[in-house]
Amino acid sequence: MPFLSRVASAAARRAPIFVVVTTLLCGLTLALGYANKARCIGPEYDAEGRSTPNYGVRITRDVCYTDIQFLWLGRDVNEHVFPYVHGGYDAARGELYGGAVEYPVLTGLAIWVAALPSDTDGAFLTISAVLLSIAGLLSAAMLAWLAGLRSWWFALAPPLVLYAFHNWDLFAVACSVWACWILLRAARETGGIDRVRPLIVAALALGLGAGFKLYPAMFALPVACWLAAGAWRPGRADVGRGRRVLAGAGFLVGTGAVFALINLPFLIAGWRGWWASFQFQWSRPIDMTTNTLWFWLFRPYSNSGNEVVQDRLALAATIATLLGLLLAVGVGWLRYRRDRVYPWLPVCAAMLAAYLLLNKVHSPQFVLWLLPFFVLLRVRAGWILAYFVADAAIGIGFFRWQYLINSRLPDTTWDAFSPQAVLIGVWGRIALLIALFLVFSRAAVVEVPAPAPPRPASPRPDGPGAALDSAKGF
After folding, report:
1. What is the pTM of this model?
2. What does the DSSP assignment read for 130-142?
3. Residue 126 CA to chain centroid, in angstroms?
4. Which of 28, 115, 165, 459 is close enough to 465 for a disulfide, judged by CB 3.0 to 4.6 Å?
5. 3-state DSSP: the chain helix, strand, coil percent, rounded to 5?
6. Could you tell me which residue, 318 or 12, shows the higher pLDDT?
7. Residue 453: pLDDT band with limits 50, 70, 90
8. How far is CA 174 from CA 151, 179, 181, in A?
9. 192 touches 229 (CB < 8 A)
């Protein structure tokens, strides 16, 4: 097929036409994602702007639930309260109040901006979807330039349909992709960084990403190890270990400084409301909504009402997560001994797999965090498709199961398929994350295209080379 051949050729060259085609395809995927969530909008609204009728039934029965629409009420979003400044966390009731939300400050700002012109949960979801789509389209464009046809694992990914507008994660995803785009482009010729500017921009991207969702901050550590292991080459020359370590430490400090500067105004204006988001996440019980191994492995002792076990599981999850992240960094150093290059991007992906496996919360939309690494690392299609299937099983099965429970219909694994799908998804995802930790740690990075050589100037019609060039053309 000539069109597909041209697309494949453009993909191999990362031509602008291919980047545009990929971005348009991603736009279609995002449109499907919005259409899926919009099934829960309206058609009528109550006095508070909540969709009616039967909103509470439809979100689980029709599998169109989204945190964006749901949080229109309960966080003073509908009252257009500026976040964090006057809020706090009521530990006795386990609730946020006064405009505090359970997310980092840039996500809180995005929520406030989208809510300002909105008077219903439907309008709030629509405006949020527009803002998130910009982040998704930019991510698809950068991935298309970096990875060619592999970028379609992002642009056409089923998780984009299910979760692009489930929460506000696409902002952090775009920042992570931006950091990778900067570093991979800067290192495409020498395998290292010879200028300060790319490091400043990458640190800015990761710091901003952490301002939306905390996870991009952890990627600064593998990049710092990469710089310290020899990637810092000012003037394209090898430098001493001390200067390389200093460059790595500077990158860590820079990422942390960006995150700190973003948070500082909120900490000063209302530290209680700012701290409330961390209190809420730490106090969140490990229950069916978290869908991690900590809940399912220790059933029935992990019930949310068992406070002693809950505290111990939260502490165990925190320690295990930190150890998992350090293990990924250590495996990277083992690979460095063989290849003499620290594999920062594979380590970032392995760290993310460890985090998703061992953290106490694994929300459905977290699969979006993995999509860029499925693109940028040479991972076999079987692993990616298997993860998509397991993720869809738990993502769809969970809400259908909640519908059965809330409707007091038969809801055991002997009576319905949805609880079976959840168990298949939970344990399948756990097994796949363990395997992906190893797969990511060994994976190769996609080849980044080198800059096109400059075209020679055309000779003047009457110049000395005009006749020769004319003959070549003939």
Report:
1. 0.91
2. HHHHHHHHHHHHH
3. 20
4. 459
5. 70, 5, 30
6. 318
7. low
8. 14, 9, 10
9. no
Residues present in the chain in total? 474
Rounded to an integer, what distance in angstroms lies between the CA atom of residue 96 and that of residue 98? Answer: 7
Helix (H) or strand (E) holding 88: strand 88-90
CB 418 within 8 A of CB 401: yes
Q: How far apart are CA 151 and CA 22, in angstroms?
A: 8
DSSP 95-139: EEETT--SS-HHHHHHHHHHHTT-SSHHHHHHHHHHHHHHHHHHH
> Using an 8 Å Cβ cutoff, are 354 and 370 in contact?
no
Single-letter amino acid code for the residue at 250: G
List C-alpha distances in Å: 398 to 108, 255, 356: 27, 36, 18
- Radius of gyration (Cα) for the chain, nearest Å? 24
What lies within 8 Å, CB to CB, of 321 at 6+ separation is 354, 355, 358, 359
Tokens of 244: 């390389």
Model pLDDT for residues 103-147, shown as the tens digit of each residue? 999 999 999 999 999 999 999 999 999 999 999 999 999 999 999
Determine the Cα–Cα distance for residues 125 and 83; give it in Å rounded to an integer. Answer: 18
* Identity of the amino acid at 283: S
CA 256 to chain CA centroid, nearest Å: 19
pLDDT at position 461 over 50 = no
Check residue 455 and give its pLDDT: 56
Q: How far is CA 111 from CA 127, 229, 260, 265, 279, in A?
A: 10, 40, 20, 17, 19
The Cα 103–Cα 115 span in angstroms is 16
Taking residue 331's Cβ as centre, other Cβ atoms within 10 Å add up to: 20
